[in-house]
């Protein structure tokens, strides 16, 4: 990139709720991105006529059907870096819950009459294309986005937060929800959200995915002592990031077997 | 001679949609508007879930109207369990919806609609002299966001529970906003005048308009369902509003008594003009009501902004703290209808004896508007064909019409993708 030339960016959504895209349209993110970047494509607010390459493409949403995969591959080919924007792109998000449910039943429930479906199970985008950076959370954190765009504009490496939600939650001075008898995923979930949910008296649903070295076995033991079942823990983890927690679980059990 | 017009991935609307038109003998023979999003199955995802987890899930149907989905969900669950919300709980919910509607209308009007009338591809291309439009958009969007954040804890996917406690800090923070809302009315009046001044295609037609209605105020979170053909009580909604599955779309289409109808700002003003405040009514003096041109939905949205600001000021000053008792989960069935930015939104749940969801049905505003949109597109294209307009002109006018409806294809696509054999 030539000096003083703005980075070319694209902001796209596959199957999703548009919440992450809107985060880019709301303040203070919008003013920043219009200032520092050359927004080549942002179909939510702009005709999608640009056919060239991007320095960065931000992608929102979960892979839910073939068209999503086609779009992802096309964007990957045109982008130097791909950023997974939000929980759906990063960990699968709420739609990915379907991976853990009886699909036959789901189909019959919504379509009692017609069930000739070829719909694939929802997955995060890195199951289909290489992802360079992640901006987690549902909806993504504006302060994290701002930090990220400042880093890439100055060509500085951006580092994701890696400690559990509990670290930040304590720092914020919140009362522990687990102690209050609520099933909170704070101990095994990646922080960086400033414990926004527990701060609002809502338990952590794990939307930023498992934290580094999440000790799921020990967490389950702790929950069992408190009277929860492993099924309850599983269901809670499946709300946003079930697929990633499952991977983590498999890693832990393999490690324990050794 | 037969020809086709296909619009793939229409921009400046929420979500993904394609339109295909078949024209024969200079008349539209077929018009299909398809949502092309992967289905996300929300109604099935909540089955088997505990009551307290439902709002977190259904809020994710839509990032634009997550407050509306949250409020409809909580109210339907409360009804199922026989819980009556206090006035204070209602104020919180209405403020969430007002903040959201201000934000949604401002986003739609300035970022999605305006560029078409200035012949630019996006608001990012607005000239130096029109930069104040961006400032006004940002200022209104931020106001909406601030209101939602104060009462809901965050701007998108707010926190909302059954019988939440209302802390002193919320009361204080929202009353501190009143002055700012008052000041922003200047921007709102500018917005109304701007959207009144735009030149819209003349597409007058009669149809049925559906919205919530109550005699005391401009209905937002509760009321009877009013249509031009009379009142419907919530529980009967299924009899009247049939959702049909269309083979070419992942979303459902809805018809009322087998006829298309319209929901949204235009329908609300047509049905509840008398419930608007005096200041807002003044702007309607020059307009012939009912609105019968779908492009006037833009004007209706702009006008609603003023009423919403006044309403926010009024109810914010009435908010008190509230410490409701712990609720008891019970089985039952409940329905709630609310006025989301784009129109009437229905949520229905059945809670079983174990306190888990056994049934859920959601009808979104866009699903209800799709039939009417197709019908209006046909009419517009026939009109343009008769005037011998070229394809570029036709495509542009179709897009303007679709945008006037402010569709949300993410919301409408809560059903699975069906491949027909």
Structure report:
Chain A is of the alpha/beta class and 258 residues long. Chain A has two domains: 7-154, Rossmann fold, CATH 3.40.50; 165-249, no CATH class. Chain A has helices at residues 19-25, 29-36, 66-78, 86-91, 103-110, 142-154, 165-171, 196-199, 216-225, 230-237, 242-257; strands at residues 7-13, 37-41, 54-60, 79-85, 133-135. Chain A has a five-stranded parallel sheet with strand order 2-1-3-4-5, with helices on both faces. The mean pLDDT of chain A is 91. Chain B contains 13 helices and twelve strands. In chain B, 54% of the residues are buried. In chain B, helix 8 (265-272) crosses helix 10 (297-316) and helix 9 (278-284) runs antiparallel to helix 10 (297-316). In chain B, 44% of the residues lie in helices and 17% in strands. Chains A and B meet through helix 1, helix 2, helix 5 and helix 8 of A and helix 1, helix 4 and helix 5 of B.
Blueprint of the fold:
The complex is a heterodimer of chains A (258) and B (421).
Chain A: E1 7-13, H1 19-25, H2 29-36, E2 37-41, E3 54-60, H3 66-78, E4 79-85, H4 86-91, H5 103-110, E5 133-135, H6 142-154, H7 165-171, H8 196-199, H9 216-225, H10 230-237, H11 242-257
Parallel strand pairs in A: 1-2, 1-3, 3-4, 4-5
Chain B: E1 3-7, E2 17-24, E3 27-35, H1 42-45, H2 54-58, H3 66-80, H4 87-117, H5 131-152, H6 168-197, E4 208-213, E5 224-227, E6 230-232, H7 237-240, E7 241-245, E8 252-256, E9 261-262, H8 265-272, H9 278-284, H10 297-316, E10 332-340, E11 343-351, E12 357-363, H11 365-386, H12 391-404, H13 409-412
Parallel strand pairs in B: 4-9
Antiparallel strand pairs in B: 1-2, 2-3, 4-5, 5-6, 7-8, 10-11, 11-12
Helix pairs in contact in B: 3-4, 4-5, 4-10, 4-12, 5-6, 6-10, 8-10, 9-10, 11-12
């Amino acid at each position: 990139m030539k000096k003083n030339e703005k980075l070319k960016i694209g902001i796209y959504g596959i199957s999703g709720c548009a919440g992450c895209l809107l985060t880019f349209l709301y303040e203070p993110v919008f003013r920043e991105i219009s200032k520092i970047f050359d927004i080549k494509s942002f179909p939510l607010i702009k005709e999608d006529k640009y056919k060239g390459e991007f320095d960065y493409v931000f992608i929102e949403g979960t892979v839910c059907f073939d068209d999503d995969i086609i779009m992802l591959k096309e964007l990957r080919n045109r982008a130097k870096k791909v950023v997974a924007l939000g929980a759906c792109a990063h960990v699968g998000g709420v739609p990915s819950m379907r991976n853990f449910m009886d699909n036959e039943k789901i189909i019959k429930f919504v379509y009692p009459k017609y069930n000739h479906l070829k719909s694939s199970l929802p997955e995060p985008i890195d199951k289909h294309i290489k992802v360079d950076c992640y901006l987690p959370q549902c909806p993504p954190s504006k302060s994290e986005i701002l930090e990220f765009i400042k880093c890439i504009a100055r060509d500085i490496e951006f580092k994701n937060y890696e400690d559990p939600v509990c670290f930040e939650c304590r720092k914020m001075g919140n009362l522990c929800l687990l102690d209050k008898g609520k099933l909170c995923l704070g101990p095994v979930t990646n922080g960086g959200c400033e414990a926004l949910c527990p701060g609002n008296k809502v338990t952590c649903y794990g939307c930023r995915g498992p934290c580094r070295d999440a000790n799921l076995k020990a967490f389950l033991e702790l929950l069992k002592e408190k009277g929860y079942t492993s099924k309850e823990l599983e269901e809670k983890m499946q709300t946003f990031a079930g697929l990633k927690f499952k991977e983590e679980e498999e890693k832990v059990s393999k490690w324990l077997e050794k | 001679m037969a020809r086709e017009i296909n619009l793939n991935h229409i921009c400046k609307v929420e979500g993904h949609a394609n339109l295909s038109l078949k024209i024969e003998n200079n008349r539209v023979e077929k018009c299909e508007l398809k949502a092309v999003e992967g289905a996300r199955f929300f109604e099935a995802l909540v089955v088997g879930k505990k009551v307290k987890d439902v709002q977190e899930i259904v809020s994710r149907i839509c990032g634009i109207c997550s407050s509306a989905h949250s409020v409809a969900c909580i109210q339907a669950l409360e009804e199922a369990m026989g819980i009556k919300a206090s006035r204070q709980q209602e104020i919180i919910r209405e403020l969430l919806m007002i903040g959201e509607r201000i934000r949604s209308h401002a986003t739609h009007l300035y970022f999605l609609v305006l560029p078409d009338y200035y012949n630019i591809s996006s608001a990012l291309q607005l000239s130096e002299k029109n930069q104040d439009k961006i400032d006004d958009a940002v200022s209104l969007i931020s106001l909406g966001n601030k209101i939602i954040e104060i009462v809901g804890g965050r701007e998108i996917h707010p926190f909302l529970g059954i019988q939440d406690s209302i802390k002193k800090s919320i009361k204080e923070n929202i009353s501190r906003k009143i002055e700012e809302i008052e000041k922003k009315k200047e921007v709102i009046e500018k917005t109304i005048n701007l959207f009144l001044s735009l030149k819209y295609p003349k597409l007058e037609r009669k149809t049925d308009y559906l919205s919530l209605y109550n005699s005391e105020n401009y209905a937002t979170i509760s009321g009877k369902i009013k249509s031009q053909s009379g009142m419907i009580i919530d529980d009967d909604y299924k009899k009247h509003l049939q959702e049909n599955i269309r083979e070419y779309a992942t979303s459902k289409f809805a018809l009322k008594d087998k006829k298309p109808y319209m929901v949204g700002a235009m329908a609300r003003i047509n049905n509840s003009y008398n419930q608007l405040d005096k200041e807002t009514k003044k702007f309607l003096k020059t307009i012939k009501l009912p609105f019968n041109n779908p492009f006037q939905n833009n004007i209706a949205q702009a006008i609603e902004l003023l009423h919403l600001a006044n309403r926010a000021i009024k109810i914010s000053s009435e908010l008190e703290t509230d410490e409701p008792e712990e609720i008891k989960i019970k089985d039952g069935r409940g329905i709630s209808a609310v006025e989301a930015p784009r129109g009437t939104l229905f949520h229905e749940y059945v809670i079983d004896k174990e306190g888990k969801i056994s049934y859920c049905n959601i009808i979104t505003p866009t699903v209800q508007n799709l039939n009417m949109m197709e019908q209006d597109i046909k009419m517009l294209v026939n009109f343009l064909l008769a005037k011998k307009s070229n394809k570029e002109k036709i495509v542009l006018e179709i897009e303007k019409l679709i945008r006037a409806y402010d569709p949300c294809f993410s919301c409408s696509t809560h059903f699975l993708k069906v491949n027909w054999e």
